Amino acid sequence: MSTVTFGITSGYGEKLNKALGYSSAVRVDDRVEISGQAGVDDDLVVPDSLEDEIVLAFDNVERTLATVGATWRDVIHVNSYHKVTPEEGVIGADHNTIMAEQFRRRLGGREPIWTETGVTALGLAEMRVEIRVTAVVGSAA
Q1: Are strands 129-136 and 31-34 parallel, antiparallel or unpaired?
Q2: Fewer beta carbons within 10 Å, N or C terminal of the chain?
Q3: In this structure, are residues 44 and 12 in contact, taking their beta carbons and an 8 Å threshold?
Q4: Using CA atoms, how far apart are residues 48 and 55, in angstroms rounded to an integer?
Q5: Which helix (H) or strand (E) is 12 found in, with range?
Q6: What is the DSSP string of 75-89?
Q7: pLDDT (tens digit, 9 = 90+) per residue, 46-73?
Q8: What's the CA gap between 73 and 135, in Å, rounded?
């Protein structure tokens, strides 16, 4: 029989749980799935700079993983969603540079698989990025 544990990130995650009725993370035995994490503060405010937004999204992934006993070093798969305009039609190099810097900083040499998707809208109008991960607790050892 599997053990299932749900986690709700403090601050912004609690607000979203109350407003929309979903959890931030679920752990089934050692496997963890999290909902998409935005680069928002606890008041759901998106920073003006793209770099600050992406770094905050990575911070929020870390906070969310911790609710069910996981870390970035347990991550095996990353999905990232990046707002693009129809005129651009492509995810910008600025997004990729910041994402790669954060992977190097947080993953300790681990190289999970990554699916990067361009979208025209995200949960808040100001958002430019959202990150969702899958992790296996203890797999980094």
Answers
A1: antiparallel
A2: N
A3: yes
A4: 12
A5: helix 12-20
A6: EEEEEEEEE--TTT-
A7: 999 999 999 999 999 999 999 999 999 9
A8: 8
* Alpha-carbon dihedral angle through residues 53, 54, 56, 57, given to the nearest 10 degrees: 120
Burial 57-70 (b: 16+ CB within 10 A, else e): bbebbbbbbebbbb
Span 89-106, mean pLDDT? Answer: 95
What's the pLDDT score for residue 86? 82
Neighbours of 79 (CB within 10 A): 15
pTM of the predicted protein model: 0.95
Tokens standing for 52?
Answer: 């600050």
Residue whose C-alpha is closest to residue 82's, from 99, 64, 62: 99
Name the amino acid, one letter, at 8: I
Question: How many Å apart are CA 136 and CA 34, to the nearest integer?
Answer: 12
What secondary structure letter does DSSP report for 47?
A: P
From the list 33, 125, 46, the residue with the least C-alpha distance to 79 is 33
Q: Is residue 67 within 8 Å of residue 25, measured between CB atoms?
A: yes
Residue 60 DSSP SS3: helix
CB atoms within 10 A of CB 19: 9
| Coil vs helix vs strand at 62 | helix
